[in-house]
Each structure stands twice: as C-alpha cells, then as structure tokens.
C-alpha cells in the first residue's frame, strides 16, 4: 500500500507503528514539508522490535517503507520527549500483541494511553515509564471528541491581547499534556476560567472563558515545552505585546516542525519591528507597544500563519500574511472564525 500523509507528521508516525506490528508493508509519502521531517527517531525502536524500514531517498525523511510483522517486546528509552514516537511504539505493541515499555525523559501528552485504556488495554503509567500489556482485541469506543486545544489557543491568545471583553471557546480538550499554553497565558496576566468541565470520558473538556489583563513577560523552559510545543509561535506573538523580556528555551524541537519555527518566528518578529534574539533552542522577546508593520513570511507553515494572523488582528498592527491558505492543513475555517471574533 502507498499512504499519502499530506502534511501530517502525527499520521505518519502513528501509522508507522500500526503497520510495523502487522504482517504487511506500506510506503509512506507526504508533501515537501513532511518529507523533510525526521523519521529515524520512529524507525529506530520499530526496527529494534523487528520491523524493516527502508528510507527510499537514502536520507532521514519520506518516502519510506515499513515492512511489519513478527515483532518482539521492547523496553525503549526515548532520546527526545516525543508523544508521537511513544505512541508509535505503543501501537506497534498493540497490533503485534507484544508487551512494550517506553521510558520518557519528560512527561508528554497521553492521548494514546487514554484511548487505549478506555478500550480495555492494560497500561501502567508512573515515573516517566509506560508499560503496555496488549489485549487479544480492542473493545469498541464511544467518545466525544473535544475541540482541538491547539486551534483554541490562537483565540485564547487573541482574547489575552484584546483591550476589553470576554471570549468563550467551547468544548476545548483539557488534556494536561496539551494545555500548557493556559498556564503560560495566566502567568502573563490573562484571566482564563474553565466552565462546564466534563471529565466523564477519557479526554476531559470544558469551555475556556478568556479576559484580557495587562500582560507581562515570562519564562518558558524545557519542562513546559512538551505541553505547548505547537503553541509556542502564538505565545511568542503574545510576548511581543507583553511588558518586559520573555525567554523561551529548551524548544529545539521547533526547528524540525513544518518549518524551522524558531527561525521563522524570530525573522518575522524582527521584520515587523520587535526586538528579539534567536537562540539554538528558543528566543528572547522584548515586548513593545509600538506599531507593528510588515509582511509575514509563513514558509508555508500553518502555525506561523495563524500566530501572526492573531497578532495582525490586534490594535496597532498592520501585517500582511504571504500565504494565508496554508492554514488549510489544520484549520481551514481559521480566517473566517477570526473575522467573526474580531469586531
């Protein structure tokens, strides 16, 4: 089979684990951005379990082929905190019906563990160690899928940057491994309340009520990064309007996303008039209340477009996003919803 994963690293990496555990083969392809993203980090544990993975271009990235079946148990320590690599190994254990142990240096989002546990899989989690004992079959699952916290984060950032008012974002997923942005915005001064919380299913959800307050700079370090890695471009744009110097560190993983997001954010902030320094694993942003003007180069990265789209919607900003259509890979209605909220 040939599987076109488009722009989705999550699709690629999780399906690699599923295919590895089956007596089957599949070739994974994607767009130019996805084809450049690192996949050996997923291939290594799957190969250690017994799968064969061929990198067709002779380099890390896509296209690659996974030849699965005949896997054995593994006790794997992640080099880098990655929920996608963790999930690939767990799913390989499920499809191959072998026990697996995954050790992670920092706790990462646990959507896969929650889903599998709700389907009858025995999973023990504690001290950064995940132990999976595979079941003979998965039980059917009836679940209410929460709203995507990464998409909600842009509007939370917009509300935090506003002068007045309250914005309610309904039915947002509140998985602790995905909501680090809430803690950071609160720390910066935004008032964020959770209403109508629902913990009845495997994934908690609720309504976010966001009110603006004077924003101050903060620090975001490596311990927090896994819970807000996709929201860092948005938080950097919020920091551009906060008083003081915001420091982001321990986020080198941003360099191997759909674009080098550290370089992209820094270059765009500088281009529109923000004082910012680039670091190998992050940046330092000195906030300003002065006018922001210029052209945003998205590098065809949806999160760069949306982060600066939020900044463009604030008073004192005159920004033009070069490729607004790139948001279609994750949030096709973003610009429509942004226009609806900004009045």
Query: Terminal Cα separation, in Å?
Result: 48 Å
Give the overall shape: globular
Radius of gyration: 21 Å
Going across the biggest sheet, name each strand in turn: 1-2-4-3
Strand content: 15-25%
CATH-level-4 superfamily name of the largest domain: Enolpyruvate transferase domain
How would you name the oligomeric state of the polypeptide chains in this document? single chain
The appropriate CATH architecture of the largest domain is Alpha-beta prism
Structural class: alpha/beta
Helix content, binned percent: 25-40%
Q: Could you list the spans in which at least 5 consecutive residues all have pLDDT below 50?
A: none
Looking at CATH, which topology of the largest domain would you report? UDP-n-acetylglucosamine1-carboxyvinyl-transferase, Chain
| Largest sheet descriptor | 4 strands, mixed
Tally of structural domains:
2
**How many alpha or pi helices?**
11
Helix-strand pattern: EHEHHEEEHEHEEHEHEEEHEHEEEHEH
CATH class categorisation of the largest domain: Alpha Beta
- Give the beta-strand count: 17
Query: Averaged pLDDT, please?
Result: 96
Which features does this protein show?
single chain, 343 residues, alpha/beta, UDP-n-acetylglucosamine1-carboxyvinyl-transferase, Chain, four-stranded mixed sheet, 17 strands, 31% helix
Characterise this structure:
The protein contains eleven helices and 17 strands. It has 343 residues and is of the alpha/beta class. The chain has two domains: 132 residues, UDP-n-acetylglucosamine1-carboxyvinyl-transferase, Chain (Alpha-beta prism); 193 residues, Enolpyruvate transferase domain (UDP-n-acetylglucosamine1-carboxyvinyl-transferase, Chain, Alpha-beta prism), CATH 3.65.10. Helix 10 links the parallel strand 16 and strand 17. Helix 6 packs parallel to helix 10 and helix 8 packs parallel to helix 10. The chain is globular, with a radius of gyration of 21 Å. The termini are far apart.
